[in-house]
Amino acid sequence: MSDYIVRATAANDAIRAFAITSKDIVEEARERHNTSPIVTAALGRMLSAGSMMGVMLKGEDDLVTLQIQGSGPMKGITVTANSKGEVKGFPNVSVVDLPPKNGKLDVGGAIDLGIMRVIKDMGLKEPYVGTVELQTGEIAEDLTYYYAVSEQIPSSVGLGVLMNKDNTVNCAGGFIIQLMPFTSEEVIAKLEENLQTLPSVTDMLSSGKTPEQMLETVLVGLDIDFKETYEVCYKCDCSRDRVIKSLASLGKEDMDDIISDGKPVEVRCQFCNEAYEFAIDELKSFRKN
């Protein structure tokens, strides 16, 4: 298994924890969207977080969508994941170049001020929607803030993407640590102590640490208990049939406008960049009478 998530508990179930290695997912996203390094880093962090949040869902058909809307040149990112370990996403702008900040890719500058929205579709009449203002635009800190404000769960989120000099992905991943309501002050103090001296996610991954070893580093001294692993992958559920249904749902006037151009139409999926082409005769067959 290349990309995977591990789930664990610690301190007699007072802590729940997830960690992921996601190099292949992020590299596939980079190839599909032809992203510049800053955008790859931002999208990769979101894909890693979305994957972990997806496997937290209980229902087989449950979905979680993370959206960032920012005032920076990247504009925004959307990622959707399910409970089966499948994730997909896209940036609003694929190529952004900014000078490094403190020797690192300036993800916060590319996103800047804005909001983060988390949408959970769990088969109810209305999806759950939580919205918070971005704190740094660096994504991990913004998710930590989201959990504290919207879900009232004290959490620590770490995310990272390290690029090679040829702009391919060297490593990617992260962790989410969450405290249960009954967590003792002693356990909280130990966790805070661990987090203060914790290496960065990319330092841990690039040194060869697995998701299990990342959690062992974060939760050292807290009696970690590994529970499950989940394979994860970049997967889009678009198809030619789904695009046809979408086109067929257009009103007659809209379809007539498209057909009047007299040229084949290409429909491109935002999430995976797959293109579907339709000839004029096909478009006519979809048109409502």
TrEMBL record:
<dbReference type="GO" id="GO:0005737">
    <property type="term" value="C:cytoplasm"/>
</dbReference>
<dbReference type="Pfam" id="PF01430">
    <property type="entry name" value="HSP33"/>
</dbReference>
<dbReference type="InterPro" id="IPR016153">
    <property type="entry name" value="Heat_shock_Hsp33_N"/>
</dbReference>
<keyword id="KW-0862">Zinc</keyword>
<comment type="similarity">
    <text>Belongs to the HSP33 family.</text>
</comment>
<keyword id="KW-0676">Redox-active center</keyword>
<feature type="disulfide bond" description="Redox-active">
    <location>
        <begin position="269"/>
        <end position="272"/>
    </location>
</feature>
<feature type="disulfide bond" description="Redox-active">
    <location>
        <begin position="236"/>
        <end position="238"/>
    </location>
</feature>
<dbReference type="InterPro" id="IPR000397">
    <property type="entry name" value="Heat_shock_Hsp33"/>
</dbReference>
<dbReference type="GO" id="GO:0044183">
    <property type="term" value="F:protein folding chaperone"/>
</dbReference>
<protein>
    <recommendedName>
        <fullName>33 kDa chaperonin</fullName>
    </recommendedName>
</protein>
<keyword id="KW-1015">Disulfide bond</keyword>
<keyword id="KW-0143">Chaperone</keyword>
<dbReference type="GO" id="GO:0042026">
    <property type="term" value="P:protein refolding"/>
</dbReference>
<dbReference type="GO" id="GO:0051082">
    <property type="term" value="F:unfolded protein binding"/>
</dbReference>
<dbReference type="InterPro" id="IPR016154">
    <property type="entry name" value="Heat_shock_Hsp33_C"/>
</dbReference>
<keyword id="KW-0963">Cytoplasm</keyword>
<comment type="function">
    <text>Redox regulated molecular chaperone. Protects both thermally unfolding and oxidatively damaged proteins from irreversible aggregation. Plays an important role in the bacterial defense system toward oxidative stress.</text>
</comment>
